[in-house]
Each structure stands twice: as C-alpha cells, then as structure tokens.
Amino acid sequence: MLLEVKGLEAHYGAAQALFGVNLTVNEGEMVAMLGRNGMGKSTTISSICQMVTPTKGTIEFRGQSLNRMSSHKAARLGLGLVPEGRRCFPNLSVLENLTAAARKGEWTLDRVYDLFPRLKERKNQSANTLSGGEQQMLAISRALMTNPKLLILDEATEGLAPVVRGEIWQAIAKLKKEGLSILIVDKTLKELLPLADQAVILEKGESVWAGRPDTLTEEMKDRYLGL
Amino acid sequence: MMAALIFEQILNGLQFGLTLFLMAAGLTLVFGVMGLINLAHGSLYMIGAFCCAWITQQTGSFWLGLGGGVLGAAAAGALIEMLVIRRLYDRDHLDQVLATFALILIFSEGTRMVFGSMPLYLNIPEALSGTVALPGVEAYPVYRLFIILAALAVAVLLYMLISKTRLGMRIRAGESDREMIAALGVDIKTLYTIVFALGAAIAGLSGTLVGALRSVQVGMGEPVLILAFVVIVIGGIGSIKGA
Fold first, then answer.
1. In chain A, whose CA is at the least distance from the CA of B173?
2. Mean pLDDT of B182-189
3. Which domain holds residue B151?
4. Which chain B residues are within 8 Å of A72, Cβ to Cβ?
5. To the nearest whole number, what is the mean pLDDT of chain B?
6. Across residues B151-156, what is the average pLDDT?
7. Given this model, what pLDDT does residue B138 score?
8. In a domain, B242, yes or no
9. Any chain B CB within 8 A of the CB of A144?
10. Do the domain assignments include residue B20?
C-alpha cells in the first residue's frame, strides 16, 4: 500500500472541515476523489501534504507516518502536488519553475518537454505570461520534476478550454500507463471514471463510499455529486 | 580646481551611496523574501564593525577582521533568525517592528557591556591607506575606492546569486508562494535562515568597511538604518534593483 489515510479530521481555526476521511492508494493505482464543492477534497489533499495539520487520524505513506511531519519532508518522501489553481511561481521563468525544486530521478527536463512540447517552446518565458492550460502543464511538470512516487492532481482541468483539457487528460492517461500512482480530484467524471481504478466519495468532510468506479450507480452520482 | 572638487565629491557620493546600497540590499532582501521589517539590521551592521575592530586589534590583520566581521554578522543573523525572527513571519508588521526594536536595545546594551561606550578605532590596512592620483584629483584615498569596488562586487554577486543560481530561484519562488515551494520539498525554514544570514553578512560587510572610515561605536547602525529605509522605500520595497 502506497498511501493509507485513516479517520482523518482537520480544522480551519475553530471550524471543523474533515470529520473522518478514509482512503487508500495502492502502488500504480489511480484513485479518484469525488464529491461536490466544499465537501473536503482539497482539505484532504492539504492534510496529506501537511499544509494543513490534521487534528486526528493517521496518514501513512510508503510505510511512514506523515503525522506532524513538516510539508517539505513529506514532499521529499515522494508526494508530488499539483495544487488547485496551479500556483506556478509567476516571477520565475518556465525553466526556473521546473528546476527550482527538481530532484534527481527518471523525470528529467527532456521527458517533461516530451510530455508537453509547448513548455519547451516557452521555456524562457515568465510563467505569468502563459495561458491557463500552459500553466496547468507547467504545474504538472513541476511536480513530475520532483520525481514523486504519488502524483496528486487537484482540479487539473478546471476552467480550461476543451482542446487543452483533452491534452491534459491525454498526458494524465500516459502517466497512468507508465505506472505512476495518482490521486486525482476532478469534476469531469466522463474522462475521469474510465481512467480511475478506485473512487472515493466525500460528503460533508467524511468518506461515504469507496469502490470501483464502474460500480458507481446513477442514483449515487445524483445523490453525492449532484449530477 | 572646481572640477576636481566636484569630481571628488561625486566619488565620495558614490562611495556613500554604495555603502547605503549594501545596507539597503540586505534589508530589502529580507523584506522582499520574508515580508519582515528588520529594524535590527543596523545592529548587525554594528556587530560586523565590532567583530572586525576586535579581531583586527587581536591579530593586527585588517583582512582577518574583515572576514571575521562578515562571518560574525552572518552568525549573529542566523542565530537571531532561529531564536526570534522565525516566530515573527506570521505576525503583522507592528509586532515585527516591536520585536526587532527590542533586539536593537539588547544588542546596543550588550555591546556596551562587552566593549564599553568608548568608540573603537579601526585602522585602514597599509595596502589601502595611500592615495592615488585620479584625473582631476591629485590624491584620492585608495580605501574609498576599495569600498566602491567592494560594494560593486557585492552588487554583482548578489545579482548573480538571485537570478542565476538554484538557491536564488528558490528564494524568488518563496517570495511568491511560500507554501507551494515547501510542498515541492524545499526546506523553507533553512532557506530563510540562509537568506537572513546573507542579509546580515552584507550588513556586517558594510559596517566593517565604514567602520574603518569612522569610529566603531554603539549606536552607529541606527542613522544608517534610517537612510537605508529611505533608499528601499524610494527604490521600491523588496526590489534589489531598486536599492
């Protein structure tokens, strides 16, 4: 087991955001985290990456407990975060964004440029001159350059034009095929569910269902995801 | 004769401006990267000068003193970052001003206790104590030229460090999104200690350089600090180019 989250609870100040999230990701698996807005998907991700300190529960990654670990140490164990809203460093060039936090491994500049040729064309441009889709490619590549064992994608296709979305989904499918373990949050079930091996549904800060995505019924989609 | 006087004054102005630059660069580096207003920067300037004066007196070598001044200020900077400043990043500027003002008092009194309130004098090393003839000026002190060159060298090195190295990239990345750079596995705490120590080292260097022109005494840092603040406000806070 690569990642195991058990009974996770978290607070923002006095307000409790997570009330017990359970989730596992196995080696080489792609796990989709589903749920409506504000149900705790991003908070769960922030807790795994130790950007939010969980108040209860355990997070185990590659056999090590992440509890109370600082976020850079957790990342160094092999968490590669592609955060919601991309968060590229706007004052750095594309190349600098890719190399600033890079760690040695099989992912190199060349491989990243292979995956997203557009980044190569724009490598000397400042990151804030990129389009939304290019910034998303940059955020994914930046995480890959740290050579993660688990890639965490939070809303990687949100707010992008259909063509660019297609490109991003293609890249994600390619990463999965290469055997990278992925934890993904996304609202477009049509593309997400066929790719995912497992799905977890969050409601009001709790995981309420987990299973194979093809066993997800229309009734459940309607109830939990508002589709 | 008039032209010579003006030329000499321009050089003096340049030398003064560049020492101010050294101070302002350290201040603005710390402010830009960490969002911290550090009033104790003047104290680090003083610590650099005192370390240099003391080591020079003990060993008789200005160069050892210069290195000691820079290292001493950097060490003091790293120490106060870890003990005090680290707790201030999330506070508002008023708390930072209050705490770093307290550091000024602590350092000033501490230095007075150790060295007494008599100013120390630092002699300019022999190699730099002469004068040179420059076009229009018959005799210009070599040491002042040395300060100009040293400050320019620091400016170039600092620019290279920030814009070309990986450390510089991380510093700039931390400037725009601290949480994100940590989530990518960069130890932001250590990075900040390094940046702070670097700022302190530059302050120490300018204290040391100026210390040999004037006297080394308690409270020497504050007037310079105020001028340096003026520089960074005019130059744009957080911008090294501005400084």
1. A89
2. 91
3. 31-118+141-232
4. 182-188
5. 83
6. 88
7. 66
8. no
9. no
10. no
The low-confidence residues of chain A, meaning pLDDT below 70, are 227
Confidence at B146, pLDDT banded by 50, 70, 90: confident
- The answer to whether residue B133 sits within a structural domain is no
Convert the pLDDT of each residue in B38-54 to its tens digit: 888 888 988 888 888 88
Q: Are B213 and B43 in contact (CB under 8 A)?
A: no
Could you tell me which of A55, A82, A75 has the C-alpha nearest to residue A67? A55
**Are B183 and A70 an interchain contact pair (Cβ–Cβ within 8 Å)?**
no
CB A7 within 8 A of CB A55: no
Cβ of A72 within 8 Å of Cβ of B179? The answer is: no
Q: How many CA atoms lie within 13 A of A51 on its CB side?
A: 19
Give the count of domains, chain B.
1
Q: Which residues does chain A have within 8 Å of residue B191's beta carbon, measured at their own beta carbons?
A: none
CB distance from A204 to chain B under 8 Å? no
B176 within some domain: yes
- Report CB contact under 8 Å: B184, A87: no
Check A49 against B183: CB less than 8 A apart.
yes
Residue B1's pLDDT band, with cuts at 50, 70 and 90, is low
Count A/B contacts: CB-CB distance under 8 Å.
68
Higher pLDDT, B229 or A94: A94
Model ipTM? 0.87
Nearest CB partner across the interface for B185, out of A51, A83, A146:
A146
Give the Cβ contact number of residue B91 at 10 Å. 12
Query: Do residues B8 and B218 lie in contact, with contact meaning Cβ atoms separated by under 8 Å?
Result: no
Domain spanning A3-225, CATH architecture: 3-Layer(aba) Sandwich (3.40)
DSSP B128-186: GSSEEEETTEEEEEHHHHHHHHHHHHHHHHHHHHHHHSHHHHHHHHHHH-HHHHHHTT-
Residues B159, B13: Cα–Cα separation, whole Å: 22
Q: Does A49 touch chain B (CB under 8 A)?
A: yes
Q: Is B181 on the interface with A (CB under 8 A)?
A: yes
- Asked if A76 is an interface residue toward chain B (Cβ–Cβ < 8 A), one would say yes
Q: Is B86 an interface residue toward A (CB < 8 Å)?
A: no
Q: In the structure, what pLDDT confidence band is assigned to residue B235 with cuts at 50, 70 and 90?
A: low
CB-based contact, A90 to chain B, within 8 Å: yes
